[in-house]
Amino acid sequence: MNTVQIKNLTKTFDSTLAIDNLSLDIEKGKITGLIGADGAGKTTLIRLVIGLLVPDNGEVSVLGLNPFTQKEQLNKLIGYMPQKFGLYEDLTILENLRLYADLKNQPYDFDKLLEFTGLKPFLNRLAGALSGGMKQKLGLACALMGTPEFLVLDEPSVGVDPISRRDLMKMVKDLISPQTTVLWSTAYLDEAHSFDTAVVLDKGKVIYNGSPHSLAATAPEFEDKVIELMGGYKKEESLIAKNYTPFQSSLTCTVEADNLEKKYGDFYAVKNNSFCINKGEIFGLLGPNGAGKSTSFKMMCGLTKPSGGTARIMGVDILKNPEKARSFLGYMAQKFSLYGTLTVRQNLEFFAAAYGISFLNRKKRVDEIIEVFGFKDIENQKSEDLPLGFKQRLSMACALIHNPPVLFLDEPTSGVDVITRRDFWNHITSLAKKGVTILVTTHFMDEAEYCDRISLFYKGETIAVGTPQELKDKAGADDMENTFINLIKESEKS
Questions:
Q1: Which of 41, 167, 323, 411 has the greatest count of CB atoms below 10 A from its CB?
Q2: Is there a domain that residue 377 lies in?
Q3: 160 Cβ contact list (under 8 Å, min separation 6)
Q4: If you average pLDDT over every residue of the chain, what do you get?
Q5: Which pLDDT band holds residue 447 (cuts at 50, 70, 90)?
Q6: Which of 300, 80, 290 is nearest to 182 (CA)?
Q7: pLDDT interval class at 47 (50, 70, 90)
């Protein structure tokens, strides 16, 4: 028996075909993974299935009901967790739970949900003050209210660390009944083997539907197979690196942190953080959500004042001479932070001016960047209208426009497709070979293998530093995900 039946579904937004004549059955009592990149059609399909969007053509049946004409009946049977945090940030955890209980006419019986989510000690904390992982757990708790027959999770694990991702999957499996159907959307291909069925979307079409194990035995193999299904990936010379003008310096240690600390009251967000990153080195900061990675980034960039310690970029103290230190630095923020109402070209012109490129040289440099990054056809589009992959590419272009010797990348590949991810890392590794020093954070554990060295953060402190292989040896693990988890667990014991 199938919980969801979809026949010849089509949905268009303006001139964009989001869902292309799609047919799909989702089996009852199974966890079906909806896998694909940003823009593949995952969220659109989910919204069509639960009745938030009306299709142009085609039919959808959910639990025997029409989601467009019988929405009220269906809503009582569905638990839905949207892609973006959809709870009230100015309400506490308990207040959000009570609100959802009232909406679903459920009693205030949260003990089981609170036990599994680990949220009980934080009942009176505002939702807006929670870490990314805790927000996702709260969203899941609200979605599970009333034991839904059909649980729909739209990228519940995006932006959270491997431990939180495993926790979320375990909670779902532990809290649902055997008859509950789960539709779980994700951009993380390594999650595929946790699903009973893997449905891979690309450009609004199903390119694979079946057992994840039938496609590949391991997560890396699964990614390779999906790339094949998407048309394959051919590694080419990085034009970004080719056109980079190396910065001349005799310095070996180009990025330094010396007992860097950030304290909020009695709480240390970062404590005794020290490292030295060499010229041309890719240095990874890994850690769970809330470990202090982004705080460290902001202190190193001069965006947040440290409570103690020092940081130097190209030998320049970020506190004593922040303007000069930042001139050596290109920074790509975790969240898209460019000007949405400006075009691609206008954003590049703005950052060229901000980084001190003279008016006479500005147009030439912007033209070069547009050519190298492949922006020619979209240079007059507003950045807010770009697909995520192009937004990320534009963010990197703005960070590199002044040829900085140091590049800070805060989760640069979050949410982009696997081919774009490989492209990004081709550019990153090629820039490092040209002498660019790169500090990067990521929640994709396979990306950690590209780093020359890694610093593993936990509760604001460094708990391990070394090459990927050295850390794997220390953790007694074969891959970086289990290395990450094992070292965190070991740290908790001490």
A1: 41
A2: no
A3: 132, 133, 136, 168, 289, 443
A4: 88
A5: confident
A6: 80
A7: very high
Coil, strand, or helix at residue 75?
helix
Global pTM value: 0.80
Domain around 98: 2-229
User: What percentage of the chain has pLDDT greater than the value 90?
Assistant: 42
**pLDDT at residue 158 tops 80:** no
Kindly state whether residues 192 and 247 are assigned to the same domain. no
In 3D, which of 356, 358, 420 has the Cα closest to residue 394? 420
In terms of domains, do 254 and 289 share one? yes
Same-domain status, 260 and 184: no
Strands 316-317 and 308-313, sheet pairing: antiparallel
Q: Tell me, yes or no, whether 220 and 313 share the same domain.
A: no
Tell which residue, 454, 445, 453, has the closest CA to residue 162: 445
In a domain, 388, yes or no: no
Separation of alpha carbons 397 and 330, rounded Å: 9
Look at residues 229, 249, 267 and tell me which one is the last residue of a structural domain: 229
CA-nearest of 365, 345, 370 to 355 is 365
Residue 147: its pLDDT value, please?
84
- What the block records as the tokens of 363 is 């147009």
Is there a single domain that holds both residue 191 and residue 244? Answer: no
Over residues 232-247, mean pLDDT: 85
Say if residue 218 is in the same domain as residue 249: no
Tell me the pLDDT tens digit for each residue of 250-309.
889 999 999 999 988 888 889 988 999 999 999 999 888 777 888 888 898 888 899 999
Structure tokens at 144: 């599970």
Which is nearest to 163 in space by CA: 479, 493, 483? 483
Number of domains in the chain: 2
Alpha-carbon distances of 138 from 96, 457, 491, rounded to whole Å? 9, 24, 26
Burial of 235 (0-12, 13-18, 19+ CB in 10 A): exposed
User: Both 209 and 283 in a single domain?
Assistant: no
**Cβ(20)–Cβ(12) below 8 Å:** no
Tell me, yes or no, whether 461 lies in a domain: yes
CB 39 within 8 A of CB 87: no
Q: Are 122 and 94 in contact (CB under 8 A)?
A: no
What pLDDT does residue 226 have? 86
- 170 within some domain: yes
Average pLDDT over residues 367-371: 90
CATH label of the domain that carries residue 245: 3.40.50.300
Domain end residue (candidates: 204, 229, 254): 229
pLDDT at 192 exceeding the cut of 80: yes
Please indicate, yes or no, whether residues 310 and 408 belong to a single structural domain of this protein.
yes
| Confidence at residue 494, expressed as pLDDT on a 0 to 100 scale | 67
Tokens of 263: 């304290």
**Mean pLDDT of the region 467-492:** 90
What is residue 121's predicted lDDT score, i.e. its pLDDT?
87
Backbone angles phi, psi at 458, to 5 degrees: -155, 125
**Distance (Å, whole) CA 316 – CA 326:** 9
